[in-house]
Task: structure prediction
Amino acid sequence: MSALVLIELHGAEISANSRAAVTAATQLSGAVDALVLTNDAANASAVAAISGVNTVKVVADAALEHVSAGIASKIIAGVMSDYQYLVAGSATYSKNIVPVVGALLDVQPISDVCEVKSPNTFARPLYAGNIMATVESSDEKILLTVRATSFDHAEDGGSAAIEELSVDVPESNSTFISLQESQSERPELTTADRIVSGGRGLGSKENFGLIEQLADKLDAAVGASRAAVDAGFISNDYQVGQTGKVVAPKLYMAVGISGAIQHLAGMKDSQVIVVINNDGDAPMARMADLVWNTDLFGAVQDLIDNA
Ligand SMILES: Cc1cc2nc3c(=O)[nH]c(=O)nc-3n(C[C@H](O)[C@H](O)[C@H](O)COP(=O)(O)OP(=O)(O)OC[C@H]3O[C@@H](n4cnc5c(N)ncnc54)[C@H](O)[C@@H]3O)c2cc1C
Result:
């Protein structure tokens, strides 16, 4: 009944979704280990401090600096001979790797788990979060990705053992060429307490600057609807929704966003929802805690000037 958590690292920094995966794993098993695939074994020491982790298994190799799904999945499938569960946070990193591990082990992974109901029964959203499905796995090994917004993020406080695994890193049929990352001083969208999100109502990339100014004023992350992304107001890293990021901040401010079902799927678990929209009947307004039924330009400028 032991569980292995696949840890996503950015340098030595542990992603929030991996901490959520540790919490989910502790609900499944009292024996939770973490797996780190890295080019630098020193990166594992931060993982050893996560509460709930017994042993950190490290595979360190220069080829793992930018790990491909092909390489990672073969390593993980080998390590999984000692484990019943593989748990990873729902994120691009794991969505790339876990299905390939499933193919290698002939197991159906269960993605976007929001609740552990029993050792083999899980709740996950369907139809853009409109219904929650309860799914039961009959596989001997169970592979899960879990939503970071549905599980507490395991804190530091542990002192796990670190064990370096000697694994022959397999050949890859793909080559890493480059990584383009957007850099921002603002809080990270998926873990921010406050998000100011803009939609098509902003009208242009220049006007979208108002959303950024308000976010800076509130020390918030910036989000966007897909219409705003498609119109080129901001890059798709900031898209919230079914095909974007799933967020659950304390405050979600939706400015000029109508509230299409696909957008709601990404933010409906936010604690307090504030809407600025000149259409008081927009679906977004119907689910809001507070609606400012007005022209967004004057309202946002007011907030920037007076917040
Ligand atoms: C398969 C699929 C996946 C999708 N995934 C996503 C997703 O992940 N995320 C997502 O967001 N969408 C997604 N969409 C698109 C979604 O259906 C909507 O088209 C999109 O969310 C609409 O964006 P919007 O609310 O910004 O634009 P609109 O629907 O055009 O709404 C604009 C809003 O701004 C308001 N407004 C306009 N001018 C002003 C003003 N001056 N002052 C105040 N208010 C004003 C209007 O009243 C309106 O409510 C997806 C669609 C499909 C088919």
Q: What stands out?
A: The two ends are 52 Å apart (CA to CA).
